[in-house]
Amino acid sequence: MSQNLQSGRRLRPVDLARGHGLSTQAIRNYEEAGILPAADRTPQGYRTYTPLHARALAAFLALVPGHGHPTAASIMRAVNEEAAEEAFRLIDGTHAELLADRRTLDAVENALRALAPTGAAAEPGATSGATFIGTLARELGVRPATLRAWERAGLVRPRRDPLTGYRVYDDADVRDARLAHQLRRGGHLLEQIAPLLAQVRTAGGLAPLESALTAWRARLSARGRALLAGAAELDAYLQARG
Q1: pLDDT tens column, 55-75
Q2: Fewer CB in a 10 Å sphere around the end CB: N or C, the chain?
Q3: What are the residue ranges of helices labelled H in the chain?
Q4: Where along the chain do its domains lie?
């Protein structure tokens, strides 16, 4: 560890807590959880900390927005236990998750652009059109069995004609089938597509979802920036430890 930080002034739990709007109990909890290195004790048994502990606390709090509390805590424990490779693996995992989220968002946006020329922005439950399974399958270039599989997975929800029992796809069903088709072509699994289509239905069609996707991209960008900030603070802590 850095000699300057090890031999620096002694800090009380309240000194660490005040600068971050935390309670002294939170500081003790972080130490007990391994997020902070073990504190020294006075002859009377009181905890004393150093600027190195302050650096550890700053690193942890900077990691939380990007990684979440549990992963940030695991990263700090790994560092404090001299298991830097485990800390780096955890960091890589979060970056991989963020990349996967970006790819999913890109796929959805591409699918929306592909649907735009069709004017398929029907409201959920719209019934102005009535398409049968064979017609829709030919339009999409898939087999009717594929549409039936999508129905079982909850991607499309056609009604049944009360007289014939045939599946009837209204405008919203056709929209969902087209979006599912685009996402499947992008390599997404049925279980990944189902919640996205649920968002389309909840939003009231494709147009409202576009603003939601803009907000989604903003959140991903904010998380990426948070990961950078957390990495900077963690690197400073690693250098201080020596």
Answers
A1: 999 999 999 999 999 999 999
A2: C
A3: 3-6, 13-18, 24-32, 51-67, 69-80, 84-115, 133-140, 144-152, 171-185, 190-203, 206-241
A4: 3-95+222-241, 100-220
